[in-house]
Amino acid sequence: MELRMCTGEGHGIIVFKLMPGVRVPDEEALQSPILGVPSPPFTFPRLLSCPSSHSNSPMEPSQSAHQYGALDQNDLSGMQLSGNKVRKLEFLMADAVAQGADSVITIGGIQSNHCRATAVAAKYLNLDCFLILRTSNLLVDKDPGLTGNLLVERLAGAHVHLISKEEYSKIGSVTLTNVLKEKLIKEGKRPYVIPVGGSNSLGTWGYVEAVREIEQQIQKGTENIKFDDIVVACGSGGTIAGLSLGSSLSTLKAKVHAFSVCDDPDYFHNFAQGLLDGLKAGVSSRDIVHIQNAKGLGYAMNTSEELNFVKDVAAATGVILDPVYSGKAAYGMLKDMLENPKKWEGRKILFIHTGGLLGLYDKVDQLASFIGNWERMDVNESVPRQDGIGKMF
Fold this sequence. Notes:
Rossmann fold; 10 strands; 2 domains; 12% strand; 393 residues; 36% helix; alpha/beta
């Protein structure tokens, strides 16, 4: 599907969201059948102008010719809208099954997309799921509720263990998962630990494989687009390690730009390097991926400008960006285009939407102040009755 989105200063965005398939990068790789199959590619020309609703938004009407792009949705990757998380889980869950695990443990924020994806994937494979979720000190002793990802996790029967942000910071995710692992082993279970975001060297295969899929989709297309840049959000490091390695080894050779939504670029360069070393890739992360800071107020925290931007994109294009990852990445990218127009001028950009739609439900109070579009319908009492199909009363 082709989509035209304005980026400000007359530059066009190309949004390419992938529908994953079930293919192996080599004979030894293990994958579990938890993904959907690729959607058939199709295209349509569309011109869109994105009027800004507020002066501080980096999103302005495009004044020159737009670029065409492809839209093939990664956020709709099957397994209940699990986005990029399911690509990594495809390999990690297969490893869990191969090791004879009867349960999985993972850890993340209170609205973690990865934890929700893991809860669903576990049930697909008849495994129990144990989640350690980070929340505020004020809420750690209370029922976490049923908003967004929590609703899906709890519907799927995941066992939720709450930890405060302070405890998480002091103890660390590795120790916390190991503590729970030892407890479950003593209870006679066989747990398999999945790290934050599914980001380890094995999980990195998910986005090495994604690059191959991008290549195949381009080859099957009619326009033979050559992308100069790939842009993506960065929250745990596995996606950018896989994308950048895959791009550097493939025919794409596109420059990967990551916008970090937590921590800082130096942290992610070092973390990605560890994943690459685990794959014996023999490359430096700083040579294959450029990382910029886009965390703003902090992880999963949004300014009104960022949320207004998410609203503007949805209203103009029908593309729903999540507020935690792709929303911040797209906002950061467009801001950088305004501040450094020469850097992006004339380049063909592949923006990867990594999912996270359910995270919007945790932002309803913030969004309510600038989303209207409703009114009481005025119907004259003299209008004659005419029934349609079915009576909804």
